[in-house]
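General statements about sequence and structure are easier to judge against a single worked case. No coordinates are needed to read the tokens, only the vocabulary itself. The sequence in question and its structure tokens are set out directly beneath this paragraph.
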Amino acid sequence: MGHLRLGNLHKTRQWMQVIDMLYAGDGAEAIASGALDASERAFFEASHDLGFKYTVWLLTQVALAAKQEGFRDGLVRIGLDVPKTPGLFDILGAFTKHIDSRLDSKKTRTDISEMCQLAAVEALSERCIERSRTLFGMTSDTVHNAFRE
């Protein structure tokens, strides 16, 4: 199913070597090293991808906003449309919507930017979901504290 969206995988010599290592049962370290070498061009291209850069920048801004007392005001300043007492899913939804809007308006959506956006939302939710739960449920304050940590 993924081949329909991303096209065929590259059939470069380096990727063929990685596939050979998988079939040969080589160790994880060797396979990871081979995959990293084969991905070098993609990592270079990602460093120039506007959607990738914007997503990483926005992620840093959310972290900086969490360090402030007015967390919600900080989120609004960076363009996230959140309610007065935002919960975790309000923030994650606003983060996703903001990036979608930015990438669609600039026509800069790529597979790299899409993967980066999904990874950023996953990282935020993974990092904060357990930290914001309490015996009394999730509150705006516990969410703020989870992001602050």
